[in-house]
Amino acid sequence: MTSLHDLMTRTPGLPCRLDPDPFFSSSPTDRQYAARQCHGCPLLLACMRHALAADEQHGVWGGVDFEARATGCGTERGYRVHIRRGTAVDSMCQAAHDEFVEADRRRRLAEAHAVGGTVRGYWMHRRLGEEACPGCKGAQARKSAAHRERRRAGAERPVTDLRGRRSAEALLCPETAVHALALAG
Ligand code: SF4
Ligand SMILES: [Zn+2]
Ligand SMILES: [Zn+2]
């Protein structure tokens, strides 16, 4: 049986021989360009079958980006492989990742709504670019009110008997502490 290599040697004008760089480029965009060059190649089917049989992990063969195929491009797994390897994230993987992130936020939001709304749910709404529902807004408002109350209570606490002790105010404001100690004699 004639090998692909023999067929390629005998066939003039093959795009992958005239300009091989994009066929094995690390850039997904270059490889997409290369895959388009295969269209109309008389060896397209033989080339694709050869790559499938050889379980190719790199390069473009028979109009197929085998690197993207091995990476799982167009899926969240593909996106993570790009990040791990430090290779450029292509638009298919970016779209899959954006979808994954949004689905994850929706799942967390559903958990928040199952308990009537939470602070985390409030932030999930914000990250999804939408207005928070009344339940999540209420949870966030209660948290802010409690925070303000704690701050107010802390600010009102008197500075007393600082001699030989460290109060919260003394730690927060050294100048006040020094002044209080001077007054206390
Ligand atoms: S189908 Fe195969 S032989 Fe033809 S141009 Fe593409 S990579 Fe080259
Ligand atoms: Zn990809
Ligand atoms: Zn909500």
From TrEMBL:
UniProt PTM: Upon Fe-S cluster removal intramolecular disulfide bonds are formed. The Fe-S cluster can be nitrosylated by nitric oxide (NO).
Cofactor needs: [4Fe-4S] cluster
PROSITE patterns per the UniProt record, alphabetical: 4FE4S_WBL
The keyword DNA-binding is annotated on this UniProt entry: yes
Residue ranges crossing the lipid bilayer per the database entry: none
Keyword set, alphabetical order: 4Fe-4S, Cytoplasm, Disulfide bond, DNA-binding, Iron, Iron-sulfur, Metal-binding, Transcription, Transcription regulation
Matching HAMAP family: WhiB (MF_01479)
Name of the molecule in the record: Transcriptional regulator WhiB
